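Lab manual, section 2.4: Encoding a predicted structure.

Procedure: take the sequence of the chain (245 residues), apply the prediction step described in section 2.3, and record the output as C-alpha cells. A sample record is shown.
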Amino acid sequence: MLRRAGAPLFVTILLLTRTALGQSADGDGADGPEAVEPAGDEQAPAPPPPLPDDEDPPDPPLLPPALDTLAGHFALGLSGGWFIPFGGLESGASQADSLGSGPGVGFDAGYGVSRTVMLGLFGQAAFFGEGDRCKGCSTTSYAGGAFIRYHLVQGVRFDPWMSAGIGYRVTRISTSASDIDYAGIEWLNLKLGGDWYAFDKLGFGPYMELSVGRYSSRSPGELASGANHWQFSTGARIVFDLPGK
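Recorded output:
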C-alpha cells in the first residue's frame, strides 16, 4: 500500500515544481521593458528651414544700369530755324504790325551735372521781315540767358531732351525814318528736341522752341504799358559732345 501511494505523491510534487518554474519565467518577462514600434502611418516631422544669413551678398540686378553719358560732359550746340513772332511790343502795338517771320540762329553751351541734368547758357539772333503796317522795315532781335536741360534716356543713340530757361531780349526795328529799340526780360524759354548721335562726338536732330517775355524799355520815346511778346521757332540743331558718348 505504501509503494502504491508514493507514486501519485511523486507525480504531484513534479507537477507543482514545473508550475512554479513556469510562473517564474512569466514574471521575469513581464518585468522587462516593452518594445514600442512606431505606427506605420506616422512620419517624423520635417526639420525647420535654415535661417537667412545676413552676410550673404544681395542678388545682382536683372539689368545693369545704363552707362552715364552726360555727367561731366561738355556739349556745344548750334541751331538754325524759322522764327514766328506774335503778341505785343507794348500796349496797343502788335508785333505783327511791325515785324514778320524770318530766319534765326542759336547756340548753347552746357555742362552735365548728373546723368540726366545739364546746366548752361544760350544765345539767339533772329532776323524778321517787314510787318503788316511797316512796309520796308527790317527787325533784328537778340536774346541770351541760362537754361536747365533734362535728358530723358541714357545709353542709346537718340537722346531726347527738354529745357527751360530765362534771359534778356533786345529788339531793334529799323524804318526809313529811324530805329526803335525794345528791351526786357524774357522770363520763360521752353525748348524740346532730340539729338541723333551718328558718331560718338557728333549728333543732330530737330527742335521746337517757345519763348515769352515783356519789354520794359523803349528808345526813343516812352514805353506805354507793357504787353507780353511771344515767339515760336522750329528747325534743326547740331551738337558736339566732349569727351563723346
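Check your result against the sample. The first helix runs from residue 2 to 31.
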